[in-house]
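Lesson 9: reading folded outputs for more than one chain in a single document. The general rule is that every protein is listed as its sequence immediately followed by its structure tokens, and records are never interleaved. Here is the first one.
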Amino acid sequence: MPRPAPADAGPTLLIACALGIERFALRGGRERSGTRPPVVTLRTGMGPQAAERALERALREGAATARSPVVASGFCAGLAPGMRPGDVVVAETTRDHRSGAPDIVCRDNGPLLQALRQRGLTVHTGLLRGSDHIVHGAERAALHASGAVAVDMESAATLRAAHRTGIRPVAAVRVVVDAPEHELVRIGTVRGGISAFRVLRCVLPVFFEWHRSLLLPRR
């Protein structure tokens, strides 16, 4: 379990991801960053239930404060034709796989989008859908037809759990590891995975820029 941040260090940035390889990529990005806020990189485990439990426990045990921004990050499946491994998805809204759960709106995405695009990355924005299983084929097409640009298993649950503890800045930034023309079952999986891993390693400084932008006075 992450250690609590010092009380005088300002709001901790809490980054949640499901897998060890995602956490490894995100932590590796620190070496290329400049000034950074106190940050906790939380590995939640796979699936919406694991993500929800892990985030609630981390907040309850003091890994972050009531003002801490929360980012859900890691890999995702792209839904739109033409998406490729290594593309980045920044959610405007996340929607849980369970019917009736409220959508979570990510309201402070401008600095994230600007910083990612300045790094030459291909960025998509829109609805990020949650799922409790890996999505393939016809189900992927149906989710895209419903308005989603990407799907993953943890982001919606993570941000919903973050919102239950109070109003705070939230974001979901995912890197596409497979897409309609590059599904995981295909032979290009390894190459696509390497592309996605490299991009995920470079997004941590972008999260720091976003964190700093949240501290600026609102005009």
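And here is the second record, again sequence then tokens.
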Amino acid sequence: MSSARRLPPLRSLAVTGALGASVLLLAACTNADTTRSSVAEAAQTESPSGTDTASASPSGSPSASMSEDKTQRKDLVSATKVTWDKAADTAVKEVPEGKLVDLELKRTEADATASPSGSPTGSPSPSMPNPAPSAGSPEWEAKVAQSDGTLHRIDIDAVNGKVFRTMVDPDQDPDDKTQITGWLDKAKQTPQQAVKAATAKAKGTVTHVELDENDDQQVVWDVDVVDKGNGNKTSVVVDAANGKVLSQKTDTD
């Protein structure tokens, strides 16, 4: 009988102990979960080195590049004092009975007084009638063809209008000359007429005029016009036979 009376307290003690252990285990788990949650939240809110890499703009982004191109075009046009037609007249006078086939506004290179790189040995040396402008200054680079298709390159200071280099194109072969004479025979429109047609479509400063052939084997004048206000460049293609504008495209980059 005495042993029967001691049995209930032992069971109660066991139950109580089990419950206590469960409570302690639950508390420990809860604390561990809370700790892990706090660490995770801290990791999410703290960005490395205080920088949000997703929102940082990489250097050389497209918008920066586009803005730079437009700025360069505007600066080049603003620094130019000699218009395309005056440069064209100056270039043509350098070649007896010559005809303009290309004229481009560009910046003078640092080695402007040197022969073009890659010129073959024994090629004609350039003539330097006047000092070359400083590197980065605007110049007009013209190409004028003789009646047999031989091209002469004439570089003109775009600020004072003086020729500072003339030379025969050293890279032409007989096929090149034949192509040039063929284009000139088909080109019934002068550069001046082509520019007039182009500037009727796009207002601005003419920076490039070139006789060329399109994919349809039509002889055309390619004319580039830059808007001095916003730096946009519009390229207009004019049929060299009849003066019709075939296409135009504006570069806003």
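What the second record shows: The first strand starts at residue 99 and ends at 107.
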